[in-house]
Amino acid sequence: MKVRINDAECIGCGLCPQISAEVFRMTGGIAEVINEEVAEADEENVREAVECCPTEAIELFD
Ligand code: SF4
Fold it and tell me: Given the DSSP bridges, would you call strands 58-61 and 2-5 parallel, antiparallel or unpaired?
């Protein structure tokens, strides 16, 4: 499972790094993915971040 953030959609709410600091971090007022390849141990948190993102900016792909 891989994850990416649509920069144009992110409003910088800070939620995704709160849910998974291993996968997301804030930079320049928006979130970025630290490593697009999601470790199995982080999958549940990443799915939660996808659901919680207020602008649906986080996308999962293969
Ligand atoms: S939860 Fe969504 S809007 Fe908030 S920082 Fe993360 S990607 Fe951006």
Answer: antiparallel
